[in-house]
Amino acid sequence: MKNYITFKDVKKVYKMGEVEIEALSGVNFSIDKGEFVVVAGASGAGKSTVLNILGGMDTASSGTISVGGNEISNYNNKELITYRRHDIGFVFQFYNLVQNLTAIENVELATQICENPLDVHEVLEAVGLGHRKNNFPAQMSGGEQQRVAIARALAKNPKLLLCDEPTGALDYNTGKAILKLLQDTCRNMGMTVVMITHNLAIAPMGDKVIHVRNGKVSSIEINENPTPVERIEW
Ligand SMILES: Nc1ncnc2c1ncn2[C@@H]1O[C@H](COP(=O)(O)OP(=O)(O)OP(=O)(O)O)[C@@H](O)[C@H]1O
Fold first, then answer.
1. Quick one: which of 78, 90, 161, 164 is 20 to 30 A from 47 by CA?
2. Pairing mode, if any, of strands 62-67 and 5-16?
3. Which residues contact 78 (CB under 8 A, 6 or more apart)?
């Protein structure tokens, strides 16, 4: 589906007492269903603000955001909760797992609040953790914990998978394996994936690369033939 997501003239102003910070100053882009999109830019450019607004964790000050034909910029708080719960899977830099629950329990916890969850065993197999289901986070490496976090997001069967620097805390090879998992998930499940990075070297893996600078989109690249992660070096 073309233009599954659209941002039209989206602005975000944070007010801190007397001071106003314009984090987004008129952001425009569109994303098709099933695209793997990389949002790239320097620290403070506005990447997380874009992702948080798209995921319904924050709201725009003005402008229109539409996802799958719904104007989420008009949603009230209750509608945003439902949207986050059913439509969005989030993956963060630091995995945010519940430490006293096993891998499978962490994934099950997320599926308990959503409508059409996937089979938790199958999802853990798919992320390569079939043999670690009963381990606690402290018994797993960073890369394995991030796989649990990805399984937790995917098991909700979300419409959108949003990833904020998902490899930021991982070493080179582990990070690469996680990027491959995300790219393969996008292809195999037809999942729309939006991933933030400050690492421009991995931009060629995206079907689309949205460059953000000073709260604006500075350019958008379309890669007709995205590079498989295993062929990217940085
Ligand atoms: N809750 C907030 N209150 C006030 N200012 C904020 C808030 N969140 C973000 N900002 C400001 O908005 C601007 C954009 O921040 P944002 O976190 O979106 O950038 P970023 O590109 O994701 O950066 P990084 O790569 O460092 O995470 C920055 O100037 C930041 O200080």
1. 78
2. antiparallel
3. none
Choose one of 12, 13, 14 to mutate for the ligand 1 pocket test, by most ligand atoms within 8 angstroms of C-beta: 14
Instruction: Give the residue carrying structure tokens 């690492």.
Output: 199
Judged on CB neighbours under 10 Å (0-12, 13-18, 19+), 130 is exposed
Predicted ipTM?
Answer: 0.95
Atom nearest to 16 CA in ligand 1: 4
Q: How far is the CA of 189 from the centre of ligand 1 (A)?
A: 31
Percent over 70 (pLDDT), the chain? 100
In the block, residue with structure tokens 């989206």: 10
- Which residue lies with its CA nearest to atom 11 of ligand 1? 23
Is there a contact between 124 and 103 (Cβ–Cβ < 8 Å)? yes
Q: Please report the pLDDT score of residue 140 as a whole number.
A: 96
Counting Cα atoms < 13 Å in the Cβ hemisphere of 204 gives 10
Residues 63-114: pLDDT tens digits? 999 999 999 999 999 999 999 999 999 999 999 999 999 999 999 999 998 8
Give the DSSP H or E segment for 218. strand 216-222
